[in-house]
Each structure stands twice: as structure tokens, then as C-alpha cells.
Amino acid sequence: MAEDVGPAGNGHTSPTVLAVTPAARGVVLEARSQETDAEKLALWVEVTGTRDGAYTYDIYFQVAGDASEADAVDGDDELKVVVPQSSVARLAGARLDWSDEGEGGLVILNPNTPPRPEVFATRPPGDLTGDMAQRVLAILEEQVNPSIAMHGGRADLVAVEDDVVYLRLSGGCQGCGLATVTLSQGIEVALRDALPEIVSVVDVTDHASGANPFYEAAKK
Q1: DSSP label of 202
Q2: What separation in angstroms does the CA of 135 have from each of 50, 118, 123, 163?
Q3: Which tens digits make up the pLDDT trace of 50-97?
Q4: Spatial separation of the C-alpha atoms in residues 214 and 180, rounded to whole Å
Q5: Radius of gyration over alpha carbons of the chain, in Å?
Q6: How far is the C-alpha of 122 from the C-alpha of 26, rounded, in Å?
Q7: How many CB atoms lie within 10 A of CB 26?
């Protein structure tokens, strides 16, 4: 798709963030044709988190006019593509394509990868004076830590970079075999409910040095 094309549903355009191949475009248009008021719908693509060292995504149809001025809007009169602001940097230069492997499906080929948690594993807390860091700290102290303190645990903020939150667990949560459940179903839910712009919550705890080593428990 070309840059600086005609006006989008919300009246603004942006340089191309996510390219759409002809094969993928055909599949998207065919799927959209089954929707009510199809001509009003744009293709929205956003990063929802990380898994196994790569980003995870959500691809859906939504009214083009719902895009804000901060979102990236590209496309033409037939198909608009919207990338929410929080996902722009993570999808810059990516391509939406169609794969014939298996049963076939849309795939995102993305040159960007999430920051590696091991980089933060031994790092002391960085500058936590920013607005996002302060809001995360407030949620940890007011909601998260009082809850996990009942099990002797605690979560401390190490850093917030590119809307990714890095936490270090201690006490009963360090080395606990249920640490991943506590993080994904408890802490991450609380943080993302309050701060939807958070892309993911990453645990940088050295669980192997805990009293009940996480990795040993996981092998049983």
C-alpha cells in the first residue's frame, strides 16, 4: 500500500506501518464482505502481548472512524488499515501475508521482536519517575501486593520500556511453581485492566534461586 493516500474514515492518514500483500488483501476483503456495513469497516491490527520471544496479535474489523489521531491509518478507498498507537513501533515495517501452509491463514511477518527479559534479570530498578511507571507502581502497591502478600509474595517494578512492564517477584512468589499463573492471571490482568496501553508484563525473576525453584517444580 502506498503512503499518503486518500482520507481515512477519521479524516487522517499516516505513513505505511503494516504492508498488506495482494494475497492477504483478497482474503481480508472476502471476509469483510460477510460483515454488516462492510464498507464502513477497516482492518485493525494490534500487538496484544508476547509469547516465545515474538509478539502476538489481534486482527479484526472495526469502523475506520473509530481510529484516533494518534493511530496509524493507511490504505485506500476500498480497504483502510488501522494500527493503534501502542502497536505502531512494534509493527513498523511488518507485512500481512497469506500462508498456504496447513489449512492456510493470515500471517504477520514482523522484523521487530520484544525486548529480552534476561536483559533485565540482574538490572536494578531504573528511572521509575515517568507517568506510566508511577501508575504501575500505584497499582502494585494498592492492589497487587496486598493480595499476593497473603502468600508471602511481592512484585516490584524493574522498568517500563515501550509500554512493556518488567517485574521482579520475591518472597513466596520467587521459585513458586504457580508464579506464571500469578503473573498472567492475576498481576497482568490487574495492570492491563487499569492501563490498557500496556503491551505485556514480563517476569524477570531469577526463579531458580528461590526456596522452591520454579524450574524444578515445572519438571515434576
Answers
A1: E
A2: 22, 24, 21, 12
A3: 777 788 899 999 999 999 998 999 989 999 999 998 888 889 999 999
A4: 9
A5: 20
A6: 48
A7: 12
